[in-house]
Design a protein that fits this description.
The chain is α+β, with helices and mostly antiparallel strands. The chain folds into two domains: 90 residues, RRM (RNA recognition motif) domain (Alpha-Beta Plaits, 2-Layer Sandwich), CATH 3.30.70.330; 83 residues. It is built from five helices and twelve strands. The strands form three sheets. A five-stranded antiparallel beta sheet has the order 2-3-1-5-4, with no helix packed on it.
Length: 201
């Protein structure tokens, strides 16, 4: 029976809704309605709330599951939905929170690179780009392109990106408006446990 349960879940994905401070959380019905507009699946899929912002998504066909999984992080306005693979023995209380949403500045980027797809490719070095700042999309100033990215604080932090095209390359400085505290000990956001050194004489 356990193996039948595994077979039933093999086309599932899991996800977690992440909200910034001050955002109003969405209900399961609201999330379902928003995803209906973004996910173009050939058959209906269902959503199950697991608690603590985690959800399980059931798909009728593997192709639908794969097309949705390719999106990874989805801007729900407010909040983002971060998808991840289905695994056995999932325990929401043991999950690590390593992904904040951070505004970055791509400094002195020439105007011909300020296209949506180009900015997404450049920002992908830092994380998944969610939004282009309104002033940047309307090109109200040209000092830097400002984008909101979903990033993993457990990965390497980049302060410079090498932009390359055929026959030419140049570095772009990355400035972070704000970075949350990240604990390298327990790999969670919100605090930082330093090491205490005791000197014995």
């Amino acid at each position: 029976m356990y193996e039948k349960g595994i077979e039933y879940c093999k086309r599932n994905l899991r996800g977690r809704m992440i909200f910034n401070k001050g955002d109003k959380p969405c209900s399961s019905t609201e999330i379902q309605q928003k995803l209906q507009k973004q996910w173009n699946t050939s058959a209906p899929r269902s959503l199950l709330s697991l608690g603590r912002g985690y959800f399980e998504f059931y798909f009728a066909f593997e192709a639908d599951m794969c097309s949705v999984w390719a999106m990874r992080t989805i801007n729900m306005e407010p909040g983002v939905l971060r998808l991840f693979e289905w695994t056995r023995d999932f325990n929401m209380h043991k999950q690590k929170n390593t992904h904040p949403q951070v505004w970055i500045h791509l400094m002195k980027l020439p105007q011909e690179y300020w296209m949506d797809r180009t900015l997404r490719e450049i920002a992908s070095v830092v994380g998944t780009m969610l939004v282009i700042d309104n002033a940047s999309s309307k090109r109200l100033y040209g000092h830097y392109a400002r984008t909101l990215v979903d990033m993993d604080c457990s990965e390497k932090l980049f302060y410079e990106i090498l932009v390359e095209r055929e026959g030419f390359s140049f570095p772009v400085e990355v400035v972070y408006e704000w970075m949350p505290e990240f604990c390298t000990h327990c790999h969670n956001l919100g605090h930082n446990v330093g090491f205490i050194w005791i000197l014995q004489i």
